[in-house]
Structure formats: C-alpha cells, structure tokens
Amino acid sequence: MRAIEATVASTAIMMFMIGCGAANAQQITGTSGAPDATTTVDGRYLPNPPPAFGGEIGLSARDSKPYWPPQIVPPKGAPNILLIMTDDAGYGVPSTFGGVVPTPALDRIAQAGLRFTQFHSTALCSPSRAALITGRNHHSVGFGVISEQATGYPGYDSILGLDNASVGEILKGNGYATSWFGKNHNTPSYQYSLAGPYDQWPSGMGFEYFYGFMGGETDQWTPYLFRDHTQIFPWIGKPGYNLTTDMADEAIGYVRNLSVVAPDKPFFLYYVPGGTHAPHHPTQEWIDKFKGKFDMGWNAMRDQIFANQKKLGVIPANTQLTPWPNDLPKWETLDADSKKLFARQAEVYAAYVAYTDNEIGRVIQAVDDLGKLDNTLVIYIEGDNGTSAEGSTVGTPFDLAAIEGINVPVEEQLKYYDIWGSDKTQPHMSVAWSWAFDTPFKWTKQVASHFGGIRQGMAMSWPARIKDAGGIRTQFHHMIDIVPTILEATSVQAPVVVNGVAQKPIEGVSMAYSWDKANANAPSRRTTQYFEMLANRAIYHDGWIASTTPPLAPWLLGLGKMPDVVNGYTWELYNLNEDYSQNNDLAAKMPDKLQEMKELFLVEAAKHNVFPLDNDFLQRVLSPRPSATAGKTAFTYSGEISGLPSGNAPDIVNKSYSVTAEVDVPQGGSDGMLVTQGGRFGGYGLYLLKGRPIFLYNLLGLEKFRWEGEAALTPGKHTILFDFKYDGGGAGKGGTGVLNVDGKEVASQKVAHTVPFLMTIDETFDVGVDTRSGVEDKDYQVPFPFTGTIDKLSVQLN
Predict the structure, then answer these.
(1) Which H or E run includes 678?
(2) Is 143 helix (H, G, I), strand (E, B) or coil?
(3) Rounded distance, CA 322 to CA 313, Å?
(4) Signal peptide position in this chain (predicted)?
(5) What is residue 621's predicted lDDT score, i.e. its pLDDT?
(6) Cis peptide bond N-terminal to 440, omega within 30
(7) What is the pLDDT, as a whole number, of residue 233?
(8) Is residue 273 within 8 Å of residue 86, measured between CB atoms?
(9) Is-contact 206 47, C-beta < 8 A?
(10) Which phi and psi angles does 452 have, rounded to 5°?
(11) 3-class DSSP state for residue 211?
(12) Looking at 207-299, which runs of residues are DSSP E strands?
C-alpha cells in the first residue's frame, strides 16, 4: 500500500512541476510536512494547486506518518506594501509639490524616498482606481467611466472581468495578508445590495478584509459604511465621530493585530480614504487651523504655488504658468460677500486635505512603531484625478445639488458660513479654487486631455531598498505602472491563470528601474499612453502629447450642446520636453506631427476598448443598468427592510408614482417610518408622527414639501396612499402630490421642481425604519422604527 501511495504521490508532484513550472521557483523552509514548514510558489497559476500528500497512511495512525501542507509565503525579504491614494486633489494641492496646504505625511514619504513629477491618473475616480489595482488601462477592465455612468460596452460596463485579477488577488495567492480601507468605487453600482454577487466586492478582488464605503462619495459624519459585506446600520454615530479618523483607527488596529498573530507575515494594505472628495468634512479643529489662510484669493494662491513649485524643483525652471480661463472671474473683481464665502470654501477644503494627510500619517507611524517601516514599500498618491470642478462656479453647501446642475446663490450659501463642513452641510468649493489647485496646468477633474485633470503628485519610499532619499524623478508614468512596480518589489510574477481563467496581460511597466540614483535621469520606460474620458482624449508618445480641446467646461456637467465625438473636436499639440505645462500649442505649426499622433490615438484606443466614444453625459447617467429592479414598475414589501442601495430601489425620479402603505395601528396609536429613500440632503419619507400621516419630499436639502393629515390614525387597519402626477417635459420638472387615507384625500399640493437625476448617492431605501439620516430632522431622530405593523408596502411607477 505504501509503495502504491508513494508512486501516486511522486506522480502528482511531477505533474504539478510540469504543469506549473514551480519546482525551480520554490523556496521551502523548515522540515517538509512539519506544521511550521513554508514554501513560496511559482505564482503563474493561482490559487496554487494543492500539493500531494507527502506522508504515509496505514491502517492505523500508529503505522502512518502525518504531513502538513506547507504554508505559502512570499519570497524571502519581500516588503510590506502600503498603497495610499487620496481623492480629488490636483498637482498643486499638497505642500510636497508646492501647494499651500501642509501635507507632512506625504512630505515624510518624499523625504525618505522619491517624488515623481510626471505621474498620471485617468481624470476620474473609479477608472483611476481600476487601473491602479489591476495594472491595466481603465477601458481594458470595463471602467472607461465611473460605474454610475456605465453603459453596455466592454470598455464601459464597470465589470473588471475574471481575466483581470487585481494586485490584491495576486499578493493573496502568494502569501500576503491583504486588506482594503476606505473608498470602494469599483463594485458595479447595481451590485451594492447584500444579494451580491460578491465577485467584484473587495473580497472577490482578493482583499481578505474590507472596512470602508461603497460608491464615489459618502458623508463622513454618517457614512455609508461596510465591514466586509455587512452594512453598519442603523447609523447612530458617537459624538465627534468622523470616518476619516475611524478609518485610520481601524487600519492601525488591523496592522497591530496582524503583527501579534502573524509577525512575519507581510501585508498589503490598500488605504484610500474619501478625502478630499466632496462632501468636504474635516473636523472643526482642522477648519480652525486655516482661518484667514485663503483671503488672498485664488489668483494670488496660484502665483504662490507656482513659485513654490519652482523653488522645490518639482516643475522645470522654464515652466510657464498657463493662462487663467476667461470664464472664471479673477479674485479682484468679486464683491466682499463673494470673497468671504469663497475663502471659507477653500479653508474647509484645505482643512480636509490636511486632516486626511494627518490620519494617513498616523497609519504610517503605526507601521514604524511596529518596526516594519524600513521594509515597507509605501506608495502615496495625492489624488485619483485633478481637483474637482463639480462644485459649480460658486460652490455649494449641498454637493448633490451642484452635481445635478442646481446653483445656490452666494447670499443663500452665506447662511451656512458658520457650519460649513459640519454634518448640516455637504459642501464643495468654487471651480476657480479647483483650477488654481491644479497649478501650473489647465483644466480640472474629468478632463483627460490636459494635466489639470490627470497629473498627480506621488511619492514612494522603501528605506531598505530606495537609497536616494529626497530624490526627484521625472519619468512619465501612469496608474497602471503601480502593479508591476509592486510585483517587481515583491519578486512575485504576474499570473497567467487565476481561478482557472486565463489572464489578460498587465499593461503597465515597473517603475523600479528609476529607484537608484544612477538611473535618476534614465529614459522613461513608458513611451506611449492614451487618455480618454467622456470623449476628451489625448495621446502621449516619446515626449509629445496631442490633446483635444474640451468643448464644454466640466462644471457644466454636459448640460450644453456637445459636438460630434469623431470629427467635432479640435486638437492641440505640445512638446513636453520644452513645455511641461501644456502652454504652447504647436498644432498649427506642426500639422503632420499632429496627424501622426491622432492616428496613434486610434491605434491605442482600438487596442484598449475605448470605442465607442460617447460625450452624452446625461444619457450615461440615465442609461438603464442591470439590477434587481431593471424593467420593474411594481414593488411590494412587508415588515422591516433596511439598507437597500439606490440601484435596487424603486426609482421615482422624473416620473409619476404612487406609494401605498397598508398598516395596522395598535391600541394607543403608533409612530414611525413606513418607507423612505435618502436623508438629510435629499429624499422622501412616508411616516406617522403623533399618529398623523405625513409625506415629506426633500429637494436636495434646498427645499422641503410636506403633505400632512390633520387627524391621528385610530387603532386598526388603514391604507395610506401618496400619489404623485409628474408634469413631464424633461428632468426635474414639477407635479402634483395627493395624500389619501382610507380612500379620502387629506392633503394636496403642487410642486414646481423635483430632483432632476439622483435622489441620493450614499443613503438607502428603507421600509419600517430609517437608517443613517432622516429626511426631516425636526420631526424625528433615526432609526424611527414603525411601532405598528406594516402588512404591505407598495410602490407603483407610472
């Protein structure tokens, strides 16, 4: 028997060696079969095929020999990886790259390692993140645009695909502890519910632990928060709670606990806080630090940043400051009230930048305190795109309103001056600040054709390996180059098969060649890179870049007339070897060179799923996507249900609808929420207050409409109906709402406007309870459970 088993075992091992090529790459430590034995793996096939049993099995344990499969570990000396990226911050934001906002944590990494002055994003949130964690271009992995605007084409469906394993999956398969803290904007928006599927949640992308929020943004005071797959609700935060600090606390606790239970196990920690995406929510302590710091205005700040950048050497000495755009006002032309408001907006944004950096610094220090920083590769990217222009030209106290094209006048905004940044606001700043924070470049977030939208400050340190402390590197690189850099640092190779699926090639190139001082000025190994977002596009090649001129400013959110995507765009041409900031357009002087570059863009675009080009912003937003509600017009619920994401809820926007609640009121009466979607900054709720039925419609925090019955419901069964007839004729139009109780009209009201596109970003649909924030804080406090019985709750869309 033993001879037969030995033959079977040796045959299995031989097949494993032939099939995986693992024999030469394996590094085995300890006694084979012992509980403490470890092994590296070849890594081309993940998960690693199980090894053959190497012991002996007799009829009893006495004449048998046990064998434990060796634990998989990374190659000897492989570093920990701390990958950090902030949100919506252009090149001129952090002090590390000349900005006026102190970022000591980023400074620390730059002083211990290297600053990269030509590092690029995709111009938008989730596309940059998809490129960052897969090492492939954003269209190649289905993220040509954010998930909320996904369309049914391979480059735009927000489906990463099983053939594009993330760096988390790769490192997990090679023995790393993998975790993700913060923003997850790479799960399709229609898959946020607990029904899954979970293959594109962090756990399905190789991250063993997740603590953070889903989607593009969340309120930092009452976040849309998850631990792994479980939503944390109802949300009743502790006094002074802020997610930015909570996230750092969680990450610090994680690395400390890991160090206790597995001190020798390397970690890959992906840390991506919501800062500084709107809403801008720093604590008051940090806001106070910036009082009066922006009274000089955006033009003077821009000049100061530009001077700082030259002094630091993070832009070439011959760099020119690009001109201020004609459609944004200069500071000296503003009245006193406007200056007061706009300075406050920048104070809160800067406070959020500094606060976020401070909490990142706490995480870095925790790694240092554990004695692990020397052998940790820290990659700190300031911003996943340029500074956001989504706050409108005047800023806003409610960012969802601005996103939907609703501007709040300066005099109305000043009413929120003293609470700007608090839990009573969801603020964003004027576009003029955003443009200035992208110094020395033109344009902002969303614009992939110009460096204002795609140039990011990035620093990288690994004290055990990178010895040119404080060095500057000017090679041209992109988000897709981070994964191959990590793989080279860890001596882990890119797999060819993951979970039985052949993998697409990783499209990035490692940046590790630039680490040594001798190679500080080595030619860039990234020679070509395309850019495209919402049809704005560019192509870089060997020091040249051709860029389309944005036909419409991004802060207009596609609400103007757009040109034909193929032939309606004007192209510009720049020689970056002489013109770092894209200031001198050579298109008219060098038409042949421009044509050559435009043809190269077509080649690269075809290669990476960029087609079809689409600049219809509104149609993307309104485009139907797969979900449990797709095509449905009738919805029925009973009992208590909470936490349904918007993609799995009835969508009442821009249509007629009715909400019917069949309830049983107990003796003594009842109160509580019957059904709600959204919260403090937009949404609706049907509830009983002191027994009286109320339907409350919250128009993005700007205005509230109320239908209320005069009498409390008596004990027993009742039917409450709210019926809304939409006027039609476009988005955000008005309509008439009627509240009925037991077939009798109790309130009627016409409204002039409704929510144009998005009822909410980070709130949920709930029945019988209200989670996170209420639609009317003056009436009730969450979770406001219904104290009667909901026999049936129906929503009909017409």
Answers:
(1) strand 672-679
(2) coil
(3) 18
(4) 1-25
(5) 80
(6) yes
(7) 78
(8) yes
(9) no
(10) -60, -25
(11) strand
(12) 209-214, 225-227, 230-231, 267-272
Residue 391 DSSP label: T
Rounded CA-CA distance 679/646 in Å is 12
Distance CA 462, CA 375 (A): 6
Q: Provide the token pair at 763.
A: 């709130």
The four Cα atoms 355, 360, 364, 365 give a dihedral, to 10 degrees, of 30
Helix (H) or strand (E) holding 354: helix 336-369
- List, in sequence order, the alpha helices (H) in 149-283: 167-173, 243-261
Q: E strand or H helix at 594, and its extent?
A: helix 591-607
Q: What pLDDT shows up at residue 17? A: 36
One-letter amino acid for residue 749 of the chain: Q
What residue has token string 């924070």?
437
d(CA 456, CA 472): 14
* CB-based contacts of 322, cutoff 8 Å, min separation 6: 440, 441, 442, 581, 582, 583
- The candidate with the shortest Cα–Cα distance to 435, out of 145, 119, 93, is 93
CB under 8 Å to 258, separation ≥6 — which residues? 177, 265, 267
* Measured distance CA(693)–CA(686) in Å, rounded: 7
Distance CA 676, CA 684 (A): 6
Say how far apart CA 456 and CA 483 lie, in whole Å: 17
Can you tell me the distance from the alpha carbon of 510 to that of 512, in angstroms, rounded to the nearest whole number? 6
CA–CA separation, 141 and 610 (whole Å)? 11
Contact between residue 69 and residue 50 where contact means Cβ atoms under 8 Å apart = yes
Paired sense of beta strands 267-272 and 177-184, if any: parallel
Of 419, 398, 425, 422, which is closest to residue 240 (Cα–Cα)?
422
CB-based contact 652:697 (threshold 8 Å): no
The residues pairing with 737 across neighbouring beta strands, listed in sequence order, are 724, 749
Separation CA 102–CA 105 (nearest Å)? 9
AA identity, residue 226: F
Where the chain has pLDDT below 50, the residues are 1-24
* Residues present in the chain in total: 798
Residue tagged 């006495």 (tokens) = 62
Residue with tokens 């017409």: 798
Euclidean distance between CA atoms 620 and 718, whole angstroms:
41
The number of angstroms, rounded, from the C-alpha of 558 to the middle of its chain's C-alpha atoms is 21
Whether 102 and 450 have beta carbons less than 8 Å apart is answered as no
Q: Are 444 and 90 in contact (CB under 8 A)?
A: yes
Nearest alpha-carbon partner for 92 in 708, 581, 703: 581
What letter represents residue 438's amino acid? D
**Domains, the chain, ranges and CATH?**
2-72 (no CATH), 80-526 (3.40.720.10), 634-797 (2.60.120.200)
- Beta strand segments in 285-353, E: none
pLDDT at position 25 = 56
What is the radius of gyration, based on Cα positions, of the chain?
28
Q: Which helix (DSSP H) or strand (DSSP E) does residue 708 occupy? A: strand 703-708
Pairing status of strand 544-548 against strand 497-498: unpaired
Alpha helices in 370-422 (DSSP H): 399-403, 410-413
3-state DSSP assignment of residue 428: strand
CA 376/CA 510 separation, integer angstroms: 17
In the block, residue with structure tokens 């009573």: 424
Helices assigned H by DSSP within 86-124: 104-112
- Position of tokens 């994401």? 645
Question: What are the strands, taking DSSP E only, across 316-421?
Answer: 376-382
Contact 548, 570 (CB under 8 A): yes
Distance CA 204, CA 210 (A): 11
Cis ω for the linkage preceding 234 (within 30 of 0): yes
In 108-147, which positions are buried (b, 16+ CB within 10 angstroms) versus exposed (e)? bbbbbbbbbbbbbbbbbbbbbbbbbbbbbbbbbbbbbbbb
Cβ–Cβ < 8 Å for 442, 108: no
